[in-house]
Amino acid sequence: MDLNNELFKIVIRKYGIEAQLNMLIEECAELIVAINHFKRNRKSFNSVLEEIADVFIVANQFKYKYKKIINPIINSKLKRLKEKLNKEDLSDNNNK
Fold it and tell me: What distance in Å separates the CA atoms of residue 49 and residue 62, rounded to the nearest whole number?
């Protein structure tokens, strides 16, 4: 088990799913605020990246806890994205 997964396991056990769901809400809200402030030149892009990192960390706690459920969902969404990009590439080539 890698260190991140061990850390995620400890965090979920210590705080519980409900608390981490609330943390995910909070971190997503902070990311939204940071993006809006960046777009208005009130924050640096680095502050946006820091908030993305926070969301990523909390989201990955859920990915660790629910990997059997979420990994197929992630794979399906990535497949759909790839298909969309391939279709767009084809239509871009047809327009040239």
Answer: 20
- Residue 90: the pLDDT is 80
Q: Are 27 and 86 in contact (CB under 8 A)?
A: no
At residue 96, the pLDDT reads 60
For 1, residues 6+ apart whose C-beta sits below 8 A from its C-beta are: 9
Q: Which residue has the tokens 């995620």?
A: 8
User: 47: closest CA among 30, 28, 60?
Assistant: 30
Q: How far apart are CA 70 and CA 65, in angstroms?
A: 9
- What's the average model confidence in pLDDT over 69-95? 91
